[in-house]
Amino acid sequence: MSEEKKDKIKNGQVLAYPIVIEEKKVAEKLRETLEYVQQKSNEYLEFAHENRLYNVFDKNKSKYSYKVLEPIFVKLYRQSKLPSRINRGVLEIVGRTMRQVRDRKRVFDLLMKKTQDPKKWTSKLLVKDGIYIKIDYIKNIKEQVINYKRKNNNELPQDFYALQKPPKVKKKILTYAPDDGQAIKIEKKNNKVVVSFKVIDRKNGAIKWYWLKTNIKLPLFLEDKHITSPDIRFECVRGNYLPVLDFKVTIEKPQKIESGNFITFDWGVRKLTTLCVFNEKGQQLSQPHFVNFSRVQDKLQRIYKDIDHWKSKRDKLAHKDSLFKKCNREIAKRWSKITTLNKEIAHTTANIIVFFAQHFNCSKIYCENLKSLKSQKKSKDKNREINTTVRQKIMSLVDYKARLCGITLAKPVHPAGTSSLCPRCSHKGQHIKASDNKQKIHKTFSWFHCAKCKFSADRDYVACINIARKVLFKKNLKKCTKTVVYKKTRLPDSLFRQDAGAKTHCTSHIHYLKGWIHSVSLSSMVVQKSFNSFKGTIFGILRV
Question: What are the recorded GO MF terms, alphabetically (predicted)?
Fold first, then answer.
């Protein structure tokens, strides 16, 4: 590789772009190959678990797992009949799994030292000693230990290996990252890529390997990009189980935008998010935009009710009953649907937020802290809607996608008083049912009204203004009398109405979910001319 390309990779950022291989012959051979690879990966993991090899990464801290594991799995490699470079890819996948299990083992050991009562295991227990670990690990291990005690006469596991079964690679996946052209060959020809895979052949019981060639058409934006070794995996695409190549594309790191403009967004219950743009002079540059997924959220609620139905049916059956397994399958199908829809919601919401930040040339994005939304004293369906919304996923995607555009996601703002204090006079306001119905007052209503200065607006829009005030003036909202000024025109009350007349559906592929035309509604117009430039960015295309 030339020095110029090395510098480009060093100073750039690597993104993965998925391309589906639909040629039947190639897909069948790749499936057979990855099934064999999956089998060998699980044999390696079983050997590692039996011999307690998870600590090998503590002694050798190389970032490449295959370099650490190659000398350990020499005997198994000779029996596996895998080509050396494919074996390295297998070891890389095995190493990633082993590192995760090692981290879980470390968490288990730390918790056991603190207390042997799993009910007391929380993240705060370790934070006291300055140990910060993923909360999901602690919750998962806590649940495992409680279940183990229930099955073993209330006895604790002797060690982590008594608790943990040998891990398995459940997906058909192989990485070509350690390859140097002996497992996959990639050759660019105009707007196409000729890819040659080393695949398995099992004729007459003997295992042989040979090269299989296929042509892949590249999207326009990939033609001039440097493509490094991809990963291959199987995924359900339009109802078919097909191989997907994750091409790793190196792009130059974008320059950070230094404008004084910034965007604020607020989490809601009726609306998922509310967006508004401001500048450093305290001027509001845009009307508020309300992002709503009501149709999809209704669908999610129906799926949750189906899950509850199948669970109640399952609870009346014995574990050995054939219908018990059927119930579990039906529940698993519905959880898979929920996961897919939540992933789509998270990506679409993140795209909308970053799109508006790009359109108004914003340098930063601000939001309120996620802990502000609580689900007490609400209906079961509303509590479920609040608790299952993928806000943390949206935050991580906004952070990732904004960085690709040179925009910074700032530290979340504390939400105290953002939707209850008036943005004009800082007096505590009331939440009323509508702008023309001030008699009905309740803290859950969606309209804000200030009795002192008569300011009236949607409560989520008020929260956006108050987040901007906190960013601009860095003062307690109760003591701050400085306000933001709307730069263009007065905002009509009808703009805030959450009804069909106020919503504008966006049919761009950026602003609706796959298979759900008009699933996302924005209650204010979007500048349509900007869609084309937005689609042209690497970020806009990587949405798919």
Answer: DNA binding
